[in-house]
Amino acid sequence: MTVESPAELTVRAPERAPAAPPAAEDPAGGAAIVTRGLTKRFRGGQVAVDGLDLTVPAGSVFGFLGPNGSGKTTTIRMLLGLVAPTGGTHELLGLPLARALPAVGAVVEGPAFYPYLSGSANLLRFDAANPAASGRDAARRVGRALERVGLSAAAGKRYRAYSLGMRQRLAIAAALLTPRRLLVLDEPTNGLDPQGTREVRALVKEIAGDGTTVFVSSHLLAEVEQMCTHAGIMSHGRLVAHGTLTELHAGRSARLRVETPDLAHAAGILASLGLADVRAAGEEVTAELGEHAPDRVNAELVRQGVAVRGLAVARPSLEEVFVGLTGEGFDVDG
Amino acid sequence: MRTGKLVRWGVPVAAAAVIGAAVAAGPVIAAVGSDPVLPERTASQLLADAAAAAERQSGIQPMSGTVTKTASLGLPALPGADAAGGDSPLALLTGAHEVKVWYGSGERFRLALPGEMSEKNLIVNGGQAWLWDSASNTATRLKIDLGPQAKHTPPTPQPTDMTPQQVAEKVLADAEQHSTVSVTNTDQVAGRAVYQVSLAPKDPSTLVKEIKVALDGETYVPLRVQIYAKDSAEPAFEVGFTQLSFAPPAEENFTFTPPAGVTVKDQTITGAELAKTDRMDDMPALKTVGQGWSTVAVVPFELPSDAQAKQAVDSFLKGATPVSGTWGSGRLIKTKLLTALLTDDGRVLVGAVTPDKLTELAGSR
Amino acid sequence: MSTAEALVLPATRTSVTWRLLRSELALTFRRPRNLVMMAILAAVPIIIGVVIRLVGSEGDAGGMIAQTAGNSLMLTVVSLFVLVPLLMPVAVAVVAGDAIAGEAGTGTLRYLLTAPAGRGRLLAVKYLNAVLFGLALTLTVATAALLTGLVLFPAGDVTLLSGTTISLGEGLLRVLAMVGYVAAGMAALAAVAVALSTFTEVAIGAIAATVVLIIVTQVLRAIPQLDWLAPYLLPTRWTGFDGLLRDPVPMSEIWQSLLAFGAYIVLFCSLAWARFTGKDITS
């Protein structure tokens, strides 16, 4: 791993301290995660991640999107130092991994805890493994983390008796034990019911609201679209696109959809206004909106006596973006 | 991020190398380190020195140490050797055995035979002796009525009418009739520099390649005897000190008070009894044939009538090779060092000779 | 960053390791399975004591039994002698073999490492934990045996294997030394088990491999033709604590055994380190 310039960092800690989340701006130009040519070739010769160049801006909610088996989890394991890359470099928060990790919370491939321990005992266990956390106020930290995910009432219950949603929330609580600058969440809503999914999404938004960078992997396009400011799309171990959601959408323009019985009339007006790709079918006319303002288009239609029953602007979904980029369908069931 | 693969695996490899070197080469390093300590001696000079030293100090000088005996005679697993326990005569034929010895000044010594969670002790203090066996919780008071001949003398000849040099030359002349004698001064036994006297038989029909006797470089006390069989780099039989100190042992070693609650027995051994067992007078008509290294003992033999013993002998003879010749027929057992022939006409021939030589000697009655 | 102020001052390296070790010990000594093993092993001296009390008084008993019936301290020695060749090593193997493989199996290993516990530190703490479990187990057995002995048999001077008699106080000191010796032997085994534990993600596999190794070495030891190998095998060394019952105590042999334990510890801990620090955690 390369270290850009750790000397510039201000660390509010004694010199011996292994790591503390530095409060100063990181020197990597505000990037929470940077990878350069990150590659993992497994012993069998199979390439799981192939030359990944990824930049996750600090403060963003980054959706790491891709079907199952596209190399998302292997990438996350490399980022967290669980798996050694066979090529390339990466850094978190502009720091060497060992110093960055205390400032990174992670949920990797679902929750894993000691079944015979209670929720709070489990959190104390992982808190003890963090060299940047002091034992003195561990209980307070654990209590706060449990409260944050709404598990205070179940703190004394054995993990064995937890429901899937509670387990997932406990894993997030473990990731939130100490203040984090980066949160890595691998499929955080996997296996949750709609209620649990909503809770997790709300939690992610709240965490992001505090200024924490959130890196969330998912195979659910809708989820990423709802939660994220940025996204990267993985396919067969390669990053096929990444940027802000707006940037990703930019390639495909939004379409205007007009519901009306006067198909021919409406189509003629839209064409005369200069909208491209005008199509009429059934009871609606669609066209590429381009730079036109939908309200102006509507006013013109009404002025010329078209009976407008409905008018909508359809942004292209990430799925369409994905299909456009890879020419493949997206496995939504996962 | 992580230490290189080579560096990482280099650590256990280096650890293994250091441990391996310490285990295997420890004695070698010690030997190399103190190589030229002893002045060179020819065989006759050495024997003369030893005889002179033996004259100077009567009896064995105070010392303590561990004597280990290793035998790898290449015998098949002896039936009953395990069951009979670590100190049975059968078990002594195979494997390694350890005896701890303490010699004090005067007629005092202690022998301890340590077993797993047990110990046998022989403590001799002048005319008083105790035999202690922790396994049976028994202390036996031995009354030894020593005859003058049973004194502890070092195994070197002491005829007073000859000078040490003369003794040495005579002994050497006898030895060189059958063997090549050589001396080395570079070995170590139990951390002490020794002279190693080697006797290599000239007779081609013996199984013995070489006998080595190590004499302490300072006191000339024999510290080790090794017998090498032909075609074998490791000694087939070895007895010697593995640990040795010439510091006088603590007095407590030579006193024994039976602990409370143990069985105390009394037994008297007279000098005559000791002498008798030494000479094996009760051995039936032992005679020898052949000469020098090819000397073979001939003993009349009868299969035991006791069923259990018979079975043991039978199972032992299962591995024997049937042989026959003009002398008759029999069964042959060969080990690295000894060959035994059990003839069908009721004789046992045992010698450190090749099977061919043994069957040849079987013909000469 | 607003949350950074809430961060507590990080502690020193030693106190960080000590905290992780305390957490590890709490896990080990709260785990029902481990407590049951300790209880079973502690029951063995009680059973032996009661049996000797019932049988041993019938006159013609052998040396060790008669000595046990005659002195309360000897029950500790006999109990260790019975448990050290197999049962205690198995219990230690269960805890030490579980060390890394158990965490990998439940998936908690990935969370410990991202916490981040640090691979070297986690391994050291896991090994120390197994060593302390071995020590606690030996102490538990010895204490159970001492108490049972004091209740069932007379206390007084102790007869050593060499036939020498020592005072009860010195006897107690020697028992304490035996506990230390046995714990060192178990520490050597723990190193082997922890090393095996880094090669698998199935705890039972590492435990079973260690137990099989113990049994195989016990068998090898019983073959007379392999006598030359015996001094290098752990089980040969384990029962060497009987040297502390001899007079004089064969110190050179005891040091040799402790050196052998040390060699095992160095070799297998370095193997475990080499494997674990380079391992891809995919569980």
TrEMBL record, chain B:
Name recorded for this polypeptide: Outer membrane lipoprotein-sorting protein
InterPro entries with a match to the protein in the record: LolA/LolB/LppX (IPR029046), Sporulation_related (IPR052944)
Source species, domain of life: Bacteria
Segment forming the signal sequence: 1-30
Record's keyword terms, sorted: Lipoprotein, Signal
Keyword Lipoprotein: yes
Organism: Nonomuraea soli
UniProtKB/TrEMBL annotation, chain C:
Keywords: Membrane, Transmembrane, Transmembrane helix
Pfam families from the UniProt entry: ABC2_membrane_4
Transmembrane segments: 35-55, 75-101, 127-153, 173-196, 203-223, 254-274
Full protein name: ABC-2 type transport system permease protein
